[in-house]
Amino acid sequence: MFDSQTLPPTSPQRIGLAADHGGFELKEYLTAMLREAHYEVFDFGGGQPKPDDDYPDFVVPLAHAVAFGEVHRGMAICGSGVGACIAANKVPGVRACLIHECFSARQGVEDDDMNLICLGGQAVGKALAWDLVRIFLQAQFSGAERHQRRLAKVASLESTEVFHAR
Q1: Which domains does the chain have, with CATH numbers?
Q2: Which of 30, 47, 58, 93 supports an S-S bond with 67, CB 3.0-4.6 Å?
Q3: How many other C-beta atoms lie within 10 A of the C-beta of residue 119?
């Protein structure tokens, strides 16, 4: 399991992964592929596929590690990827997106500074998932003024009340 107290400052090679039972098999595959590609991998769980586990128990600690810069980027996997994405985006500083195709894996980082990719362990195959992960990790935020302006507007939502009486 992950212990943030033992980590030096983040590097682009430090990647965190988390999955519930629906994404466990894909997480294990991606972990092996990342290590083979010389990434430093931090596993936030689950440690084994348990049908009654809950994705927030693994995804939220990963999202915090991404937000605090303890890992450079994160990957959250559940059965569809939807629940993992919802949970990750509740953590301020996380910009997570459910990705099932290559264009968004790149564009989400370049334009929106996506720092956590969400995948559906029951929705994408291993080969496609590995392609998506490689694209996500190789992409860099453009830093263009228009993208920074938009991200500032999104970030302001994290510090303001979002529920208003109708």
Answers
A1: 7-157 (3.40.1400.10)
A2: 93
A3: 30
